[in-house]
Beta-ketodecanoyl-[acyl-carrier-protein] synthase
Amino acid sequence: MARAIIRATGLYTPPEIITNAELVVAFNAYAERINRERAAEIEAGTFTALTPSSEEFIEKASGIKQRFVLEKSGVLDPNRMYPRFKERADDELSIEAEIAVLAGRDALARADRDPKDVDGVICSSANMQRPYPAMAIEIQQALGTSGWGYDMNVACSSATFAIEAAANAVKSGSARSVLVISPEITSAHLEWRDRDCHFIFGDVATAVLVERVEDDEAFDGWEILGTRLITQFSNAIRNNFGFINRSEDSDPNARDKTFRQEGRKVFKEVCPMAAEHIEGHLKDLGFTPATVRRFWLHQANLNMNLLIARKLLGHDPSADEAPVILDQYANTASAGSIIAFHQHQADLKAGEVGVICSFGAGYSIGSVVVRRHAV
Ligand code: CO8
């Protein structure tokens, strides 16, 4: 019986940082401008004045201190409030593929693998730049990998769901090795003019190289002991942007065409679901939370992670038990738990077990239980 392993991971971190202080200055300048322009409506009671954002609130409510973005000048321009990207010709590498390729190359270099050894690319993220051709096929061509490529989207759970697909492909023998890549350009679908969510997201790309090993084969890497996925429909996190918009004659700039959520509701509903999901998955594999060396949790909100880990462990988790990267990266949708795994796994010893878990829009939850191997 063959096994699926994570051989290596890769990370691309964008060059530009927006601190909470910079973000709040830009938002408050925007709010002041709108309040000035709409002073008569505010006076007449037909428009509610915008309230300023605050650094203190952002850090306390979320744990986020800064975020990386591909382009910050557009986001911080109070007359614009979204990134500035130059349109690329069809024969140029698209921006989402470009960051995906950089993360993919990083994973291949760490695994010391030739692109030709990879049989499949799954591009799995919360948003694809276009409907077709599949982003994954463009990435496949740019990387020079063999076989096939296809796209997946399960919002924040895109990476864990794709790891299950990759693990099944290598175990069944339909591929020897599959690269799961999650390019997340959240800055282009975040509403930076909404005080309730303008601080939440950042850009990044991650890659996970899933390979097949035979049962008696010794290897360096992470054995995938099990994957478990669950979904339950909810409108609490939603984005209505899509190809039907034109035929509906709906406003492409309306608020519902970018990310929106009921943050409190998400918090209350998803935390117990995620804790129960992880506990059940571990139990069926013969583990308890106490026997897990590390939890690489989805990085949406620090308080959310503390609550989930507390439900599992019965105490506040240390940074060693449940590492945090969202203070630096913010919420990077599907990439968050993979960045945590990428940056905080080298110190684990052979035989130690960990859990990668994502949760988010859908709702969707995906867990991957892994065990360290070393030769
Ligand atoms: N500055 C100052 N005050 C603020 C601000 C601000 N920026 N924003 C809100 N406030 C105020 C509110 O007005 C409110 O005031 P009052 O009490 O007077 O009414 C007060 O602060 C409290 O507001 P909230 O109740 O909204 O604050 P919370 O403590 O709930 O914190 C959070 C808000 C941080 C959003 C929190 O609810 C949370 O993290 N929830 C979970 C979110 C989550 O995990 N969502 C998952 C989404 S990710 C996903 O699935 C991927 C989607 C695809 C990617 C999209 C990319 C763009």
Notes: Residues 53-54, 57-58, 61-62, 126, 155-156, 186, 189-190, 195-196, 199, 201, 237, 259, 261, 263-264, 266-267, 300-301, 304, 331, 333, 360-361 surround octanoyl-coenzyme A (CB under 6 Å). The first helix runs from residue 20 to 37. Residues 90 and 133 are 11 Å apart (CA to CA).
